[in-house]
């Protein structure tokens, strides 16, 4: 019987991209777990299963009835309800006879206790990790860094919500935290999802799966954007102390994105603080792309050139 992969949060930006890339790799059948009765813009060839994350027993039944071997959770950690949904999914997976592996929802930066002053939601990730450590499940915590999709909106192919932060190429504007020289590891969401899909072929999972992104700085990204567009951007420089106090400018939300200005500002404040704390810098050792000959993630230059060079 083929090994079935279940992706929770399969209709979200990260989850949908992972589903697409698992299908693209063509090695495993995949089902999508979703709270929704009807799925908008479903991925062709995927069976979507409506679930109730509050019902652990029913969750386990769904996983067993579809012979799920591996669960990938891509539920966005946006509140206690989302965290509880993931925790219940872990408990349900452990109750089954079929599920052997679990990949929790992290995907952004390395979460540890010292980040609580920046992101109180760190506890959601640590609680899930603790549950997995105490379980019988083999697991790996995926860490991607920062998605470079944000310097390609609105024209880049992407399922990630179109949030304008740091470098707004469309409007030729930028907000630079500090001197913008802290290292940031950047990867295109589809390259990150490809690595997640390829990890399904790896028998022994490490505790952390670090993606092979490009190490750069926001200052270099801004310089590259100006080079490719041939224009100087309007740049706002932010003092570190202002960033730490949440005193940051709100970049203009992309028209039609549905993102409110205050939401945009809150996300930017979090992102800039994490950047100045080197939160988006991934360790050099343990990046998993080296396991897969032929895998080459796009560089920031390649990505931005493909999106913007023909639109100058």
From TrEMBL:
InterPro entries: NAD(P)-bd_dom (IPR016040), NAD(P)-bd_dom_sf (IPR036291), NmrA/Isoflavone_reductase-like (IPR051609). Pfam families: NAD_binding_10. One of its GO terms (molecular function) is oxidoreductase activity. Keywords: NADP, Oxidoreductase. It comes from the Eukaryota. Belongs to the NmrA-type oxidoreductase family. Isoflavone reductase subfamily. This is NAD(P)-binding domain-containing protein. The keyword 4Fe-4S does not apply. The keyword NADP applies. It comes from Penicillium malachiteum. Residues 9-140 form the NAD(P)-binding domain.
